Sequence to fold (278 residues):
Amino acid sequence: MNARPKRTKNVEAGSPAWLTMLGRSIDAIGDEAFPQILVDALKSLTDFDYSVVFAYYQSERPFCLFHTFSPEKRIVFVDDYLKGPYLLDPFFKACGRHVDTGLYRLREIAPDRFYQSEYYRSYYVQTGLSDEICYTFYLPKGVAVVISLMRSGESSRFSAREVRLLESVVPIVVSLAQRHWKDIPEKFDLETAAGELYEERSLIENTVSTLFSKRITPRETQVVAQVLEGHSSDSIAKDLGISVGTVRIHRRNIYAKLQISSQQELFSIFFKKITTGR
Fold:
């Protein structure tokens, strides 16, 4: 068995080497080289394999602001993602909930059954990642930006020490990035996106309703949305204020109406519709 590559940090936050990289990042604000310089600075603290930056705003399709993928990997991480799977991405959903600015690991914000969900098994595993950690912050008018640092399947997960190190520079990373990407809100059709929101419903519920509303009830729409997101029956019951038995009845009725027999088939229908119809 091949040993995993050893991860070592190169510099200390606050060291002369780090301050030099920080100065380069400041000088690059507004320049197209800024994202790569910032990522290089972070990589000098803690190693990782890939980085990607997405901007999100409500129902608008996200923008990829930067990535370090090869052309082949870009297809899965960016092109396929933007066709629809982003709707089920825990980081996208966290931005919709307007989580506090900060650093988050995937498992900290994902639903309780995310790693058993069809989104994870059918899409996320294709990325081949072993761990993902993201800086999340906001621009004017509610636009969110996520800077993702990723390790591939051959790499170890971020250690607690590495997470603390990355957390220690959150204010610096956010301040620099907010200044560099301050004009990004202009890329979104903010008025149209705001007008498309449905009262007291999540974007994924709106999408499920659009796809299946003639075949399932509003309550079943809520259940489908949460099943797709990776919530267990217990979690769904708690969120909707109903019993676990009722959730299971809803799931059986949904599968019968859609003429399917598994979560895998449900995800397959959903994924096909959003990638061909959005």
